[in-house]
Every structure is written in C-alpha cells, then in structure tokens.
Amino acid sequence: MMKGDIFFNLSLRSVRLNFLRSMLAAIGIVIGVVAIASMGMLGTNMQLEVKEQLSATANTIVISSDTVRMGPPGFTPSSSTASGVTKSELTKIVSVVGSNGTVIPIYSTDGEFTINSLAGRGSIYGIDPGDIGKFLTLNQTYGNGTIDIGAGEVLVGADLADDFNLKVGTRIRIGSFTSSSRPELRIAGVLQPRGTVADGISTDNGIVVNSQWYTDQFGGKDEWTQVNVIVKNVDDISDIESALDAKINTNAKTPSVRITDASSQLATETSTLSTVTTFIMAIGGISLLVAAVSIFNVMMMSVSERIQEIGILLSIGTEKGEVRRMFLYEAFILGLLGAGIGGVSSLLIGYTVVDAMIGTTAYLFQPASILYVPAAMAVGVVVCVISGMYPAWRASNMDPIDALRSE
Amino acid sequence: MTDTPLIQLVDVTKTYHLESGDFTALDHVFLDIKENDFVAIMGPSGSGKSTMMNQLGILDVPTSGKLFISGREVATMSNLERTHMRRDTIGYIFQKFYLIPLLSAYENVEYPLILKYKKRDTSGKASVLLEQVGIDKDMSEHRPTQLSGGQQQRVAIARALVNDPKILLCDEPTGNLDSRTGYQIMDIVCGLHKEGKTVILVTHDPKIAEYAHRTIRLVDGRIAAS
Q1: ipTM, two decimals
Q2: Which of A10, A308, A318 shows the shortest C-beta gap to B102?
C-alpha cells in the first residue's frame, strides 16, 4: 500500500535526490541503534553467562560466620583470626545434613605469593585433601597432577597458571617479597576453570593448600571461613537451609551464621548487572538524542528547499494532512535507513564485543539478547519520526501564495 | 442555470497589512462570471490582477465583501472544504507551469486524480489527456526539467483538466513561452472553452486577450472597464 502511495514515492525521491545529506543524518541513528543494541546484548549476555555459571553450583549451601553482626563496635575482622564457623557449629551442620549431602569446611584468606621474580595476589583456600575432589577437578594439560596434596604442595587456578606460565612441578612462594617467611610449595596440579560461582570458592585466580598446612601457616584452626554443603537433591535445598537455621541460629536476634545459596547470589548479581546495562544503554540513548537533532535539521532543510513545491501541492488541492504525511514519510525513510544499517552493524559489533568481553557467543542468539536489535531499531525509527513532526507540521501550514512566490 | 453566476464577487475588498501601511489590492469590486464565460483580466503591474486570481482560486479570502463560487460563500467554508474545491472545481495554469519536479510528466497529471480518489489511477485518464495536449507516451515518462517550456505548459494543462473542473484559471499562461508556442497553448485553451469550461485569463498581452469574449481592466484594485 505504501509503495503505491504517491507521497511515499515523493519522499523516497527526495531522499534519493539528497542522498549524501540524508546518509549523514542517518549515521546518527546508526550510532544510536548500535550503542543501544550492542550494549543491551552485552549486558544480557553477561547476565545469562553468570546465571549459567551460578546454576552449576546451585546445589551448594554456603554457611559463613556472621562476623559483621557478631563483632563489637569498632571491631575489624582480620583474615586469619576472625572467628569463623566453629567446631561445634560444624558438628551441628554435619548432624543436620546427615546423608542428604556432603559437608566441606573451608579456610580462606587473601594473600600474596611470588613465583621466581614475579609477585601475585589472590585467594588462598585451605581444604582437606579428601574434600577437594568433591567439587574441584584438575586440568591435566599442565602436567600430570594430583588432588591429594601434602603439606608442601599446592593447587593453582587456571587463570593463574596461564598468567604466570605455571606447570605441575613449578615452585611458588606464599607471602610477598618483604615477608619475613616465604615458604616454598610445589605445584601439584592445575584446576579446571570455574568462572563465576556461587559457592564462594573462586579458584581461577587463587590457590588451594592442604588445610593442615593452612592452619599451621595462618592459624585459626577449627575456625572455618565457610562451610559448604553440597546437597544430593537440589529440591531439598530450602528444607535443609531452614533446618540448619533452626539448629544453629538459636538466637534469632543475633544469628551466628549466614546461610546462602546460588539463588540469592544470582538475584544480587543479575540485578547489579541489569542496573549497569540500563545505565550504559541510557548513555547510548543520548546518542539517539543527538541523532534526533540532526534529523530535525535535515528535515527543516528539506522543507525550506521545497517551499515552492509545497506551494504547488497546496494550491492544486493537496490536503494539509497529505503534505504532513509526505514529510513524515521522509523522516521515516531516514529512520529505516539508519535503523537498517544500525541493525546489521549492531549484530556484527555485538558479536565481536560479546565474544571479546565474555569469551563466548553461546547466549547471543537467545531471545532476551537478540531482541535488543529489533527493539533498538524500532526506537531509532520512532526517534526519526518524532524529529520529523515539527518540520512536517510547518510545511503543511504554509500559506500557499507565499510558498508559490518563493524561489 | 445561466441566471446564477458561477463566480460572483460582491463588494470584495482585499487589504494587505504592510509595515509601510495598509495596501488595498482590491477595492470594492463587484463582478459576475457566468458559466462558460471566457474572461480576460488585464491591467498594469500592481493593479490587483494577482490578488484577484488568488481570490478566484480561493487561495485567499476577502478582507471584506463576499465571494461566491458555485453558489457557496468561500469565507464560510472550512480549510478542508476550500482545499477540496481547489482540487475538484478549479484547474490552475500558471505562468511558471509549477509542475512537481520530483514527479514525471505522467505522474504530474495523475496527481490530482490521486488526491481526489486516494489511490493510483487505473482509468487511463491521465494518458488520454496527455495525448490530447500533444505529449506522447515517451515524453510523459520524463521529469519536468527534461521538457521544453511549451511541453511543460501542455503537461500543466493536462493536470489542470484531469479532475474535470468547471473553472480554468490561467495566470499569464503564455508569459514564459515564445509567441508561436504561446498561440498553440491559447488554441488549446480556446478549445477547452468551446467544450464548456469557464476560462479566466490574466494577461498583459492584448493579442492574447483578444481570444477572450470579455475583457476586464483593473486599475488600482478597481474595475476600470468591462
């Protein structure tokens, strides 16, 4: 219907006649559409990636000491001596969980380490060698490693191994160059990458040591930073959590431990990510605002160049609404042009950005992500049409006599 | 039928408010134009010819007095009604042709049909009219800028006729043409008058005015002779 419309044809010919100018104006829309679509896609892909990774540890309950609430005013928890989950609490956990899951007590702290002349920083986890295999696996491409680490041995995360070019058998010293004691340990294995996880054990840039060695080095024996419970059936998770809460947090006003799982962390992370995404998209939206100004400008030029033509149209009986429609079509065509190019570009740019920043494009074509492209295109077209409204109104309200007389 | 004039001006005055003061372009004009009249309007520059044409073409309304076209008082009509009357009752032929530059000759002629029927024309009326005014099929595909002045004016005449208007307003139709082409155009206009159109012609060329059956002289916004 639109194709046969004489006013659409007139607009199309006008755009063609001033193609360079029209394209320049449309570039603003292209940039706006690309900004909104690719940022939206990036944010959504991050959320999907986090969701996927967190759901891998969805069966894990994390019990940590509620140090913030337990400490008196002015109390600063220090990494090794802060009271953690106590032995009696651990016993209660074990008795509640029973055969419904596996209980893994874990020590952790932040620390520095050195490899030859290079220094690094990361989390140091102290875990009983018997528990390590219950949730961590080795990547054997770095050398034939073992999970059963002794006192002088350590497991390192995948990113750490790549950054420092580590292999099984390399030596690593715990502590900074200035530390008085820098015990040397042998790398017994490299762990598989875990990504973002909800169980509090981010080993990719960290190291895992024998729990015995950990308490010898850092102290704090039987005061675990956290206790992870891997439940057998994920559907039982909330029942077990309430049972644990009832048994350990006997004083409701001052609970002694905090019990969390992936779902609460997922909610926090995705809401943070979506806030950031919205913010970045809003910045992209500003570029559309700038584009709107340039479309407005080009439309005003088009109107003032065609005053005599508008005069002809009006004098031989064209309705005001029809003149308005002609100029709105012109803005619409500019919008389609910009949105079309923008849509294709945002697919390409979105793919590249997502691939570079997230490392996978597995989620790119999921509806939640890919729908940003048509949505941004629609916004671009709407912005164009809105920008064309005033110029179109102005054209339709010209006095035909004055318009005819203008050269 | 011929008793009621097709066009009737009753005490029409048109005043423009300029910075240098008010300027009266038409001064208490009375005029009747009957159906199938052929009227030439003559007069020096500034005598009110253009203002008169704008009134007759209902592009403008009188400051005072009444203008009736087909029995309807123009000032009481809505904007849209006036637009529709321009489209359906009046055909315009301008000195500068005023074809729509982005449309081909054929589309220019088809355009008023589209305005009236809100769809592309399938009746072939535009092609028939173009042929009648001497524009062949090949030429009708061209844009106005690719046509000579005479050809453009022929296209403009076909455009003016396509909605079968009662009134033809010709504003110096030969003013931009050489005399030979001018006479050819006037022959077409005379033919249209014979077919029953009411023709109103503005010109300052007495030879062209001779085609008309009645000549009105305007001086300072008044009718000096009729």
Answers
A1: 0.94
A2: A10
